[in-house]
Amino acid sequence: xxxxxIYIADDHQLLIDGLISALSDYPYLExxxxxxxxxxxxxxxxxxxxxxLLLDLNMPQADGLQVIEKVKATxxxxxxxxxxxxxxxxxxxxxxxxxxxxxxxxNGSINDLVTAIHQVANGKSVFENxxxxxxxxxxxxxxxxxMKEYLLTKREHDILLLMAKGKSSNEIGDTLFISAATVxxxxxxxxxxxxxxRTSEIMNLAASKGWLRE
Length: 214
Prior knowledge:
Layout: E1 4-9, H1 13-23, E2 29-35, H2 38-48, E3 52-55, H3 64-74, E4 79-84, H4 89-98, E5 102-105, H5 110-121, E6 126-127, H6 139-142, H7 144-149, H8 154-164, H9 169-176, H10 180-194, H11 199-209
Parallel strand pairs: 1-2, 1-3, 3-4, 4-5, 5-6
Helix pairs in contact: 2-3, 8-10, 8-11, 9-10
């Protein structure tokens, strides 16, 4: 069996240490590097030349989505398997659109992880709870016409849906991996574009239009 070279990126050293220990039981898996932030991943990836990058999304200096985009643009031979605590379709779909090769939840088993590593290393896609990129969602959910009418960006769309669920700026920031201050700026812009004054009006609008129906 060919050796699969693994690079582990996560902002929690304890998780990295645990993965190194667990994967050491598999002689055909070789750890070639680790990082606690996205900048180090991008600096190391060309020197360590891994076959598979195990990547957390929530990292400092460069978040997981930025890492996916840059690695796929410059080192497309590296397969990216995202390991995350976030079980949300819109996040998984964005990861998939950025070019990642798989997505696993951190509460899975080591056997699931090893299987997924083999699959992505061999050119297969591995995603959990994903709405396929080719599957068309309801127009009411994506609000295509509404977005065009009010000139909403994709980021504003994502924040608008979370606002409609009553999420705070901190909660939205944690979900989308941006700062609460950035969320607050987007919130003000969204309210201005819609001609509304408060989040409760967005929640009422969402309920009336059925935006949040899965």
